[in-house]
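ENTRY TYPE: paired fold submission
RECORD: A
CONTENT: sequence, then structure tokens
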Amino acid sequence: MKKLLEVSEAEKKLAPIPIAFKTKTLDLARVLRSEAHFLLNKVTAKAIKTDRDYPPYDRICLDGIAIRYDEKTLRREWQVRGMIKAGDEPVRLESQLLAWEVNTGGVLPILADTVIPYEHLTFVKKKIAGKTLTLAFLKDNHGYQKNQNIHPKGSDLKKNEIALPKNTRLLRQHISLLTSLGVKEIKILQPPQITVIQTGSELVPFTSKAFPHQIRISNLWQMKMQLESEGFPVAASEIVPDDFKATTKALKNALAQFDLIIVIGGISKGKFDFVKKSLTQLKVKEIFHGVAQRPGKPFYLGCFTRRGKKIPIFSLPGNPQSALVCLKRYVISFLFKKLKAYRKPLKIELASDVTFNKPLTLFQLVHLNEQGQAVAVKHQGSGDFNALAKSDGFIELPQNKNQFFKGEKLDYYSWH
């Protein structure tokens, strides 16, 4: 490996690499009925506008009575005209002497402008001229103000206003908005065709009996799950032995078919690490190899041109922590930046002091305590998948210092 790049330098070299995204139009009703999870973390290709004002009417916020405010008399007694509930068409309030009983979510009666909650009222039935009338009285210790407990029409969104901008990363909270707007079709940016290749002669299927000299395949499934949970399906995957010809063949096939290639393992200095040699033979341009970080020091980035199209190749170290950290920190961040939907990591506090006396950026596995602080997860090196399973994510401890103190806020990358 050449001189190790700093993390910021690696990001700068990664930034110019292009990747194209096709668009796809989805039938929202069909997707929600059959595979709603598919929408998670997809990115909108077109802004979504409102079809009408929201709320579409003056909406009642509390159960009670609707009245017409009378500034001169500030009435404390009304004859109840009747009851209207959510879903009823609007009715008219003919007089300041009258009120309608109303329910949360219903339409404010025409000419009404104030809602008084039940808790502030007393109701009495009286017979007047042979008719039983219901009267509402305001309790002595309560008052009211004009326009109270009303959600005005169009106060959230106006008709034809952009409700969801282009390049929005769709999350669970957006589904209510989309369905409330009556969206029938949604145009998304289609993720690239991704393949994951894992190298290792020691690997056997996780369903198999493993002999003492063998390791069950886990990285591949871990990477696939992380990518797909972030909205990037894996189109294909392959396991190849630590063999130059087999590695070259697998990479050649991948370069001919896919938009983005992720390789796990085989990129360090070992005599049976053939990935870099194979990529060089296949005319892949090396962007960098080696980053001053722990875990993930042998991280490699290359780029291949296929009929004028640039194909990025990310080769990640094979240990579980190294592979997943590099995937999250670089590959997934790269994809969301290209989609213009990247969100900066949250800053969270350290639960205790951390010392790291190496000229490297440290990606420290952590779990979050009840106070939302980062607690370092102890581990036996980057191959410790047990420690990885106990973590919620990792924090980034920059290279330019070696002492980090309790309460200090650092970038946090969550697995979730």
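RECORD: B
CONTENT: sequence, then structure tokens
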Amino acid sequence: ACPDSAISPVDPAPCLRGVLQRSGSGKDADILLRAEVRGAIETPCSRCLEPARVTLAAPLTMTFVPRSPGDPEEAEDPDVVYYSGDEIDLGPEVRDEILLGVPLSPLCREDCQGLCSVCGGNRNLTPCDCEARKSASVFKQSAFAKLKV
């Protein structure tokens, strides 16, 4: 799960599969990762806030370059990440790809009716006529209702 978002994994949970290629030798080797994040996540529906299942298939290409003294905090190229030591933490890069793979407006289903703008009820669970009643009362009070044709 991403603690700073409303996204949580579901079956099949997102996994990373790919290939690491090393160029150079020793501690000065650049490492190229070519992979894909696949799986499913659950996030709130953009219309009704019920859980929406989203299937992911996001490619990930990243070059890990050993940090040298004087390197800036982040590389200028977004596909380049500095590392130091003997281990590389892929977590932040995979998290970013998962977040980028989530649609801007995920839906629990294509025909989601969303929430009623008057009473706030989930219109998928119980239909309501609040909008129709509100429109009728607004029309009755408007100047057009007083016109005689």
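NOTES ON RECORD B: The chain is about 15% helix and 35% strand. The chain has a mean pLDDT of 83.
STATUS: closed
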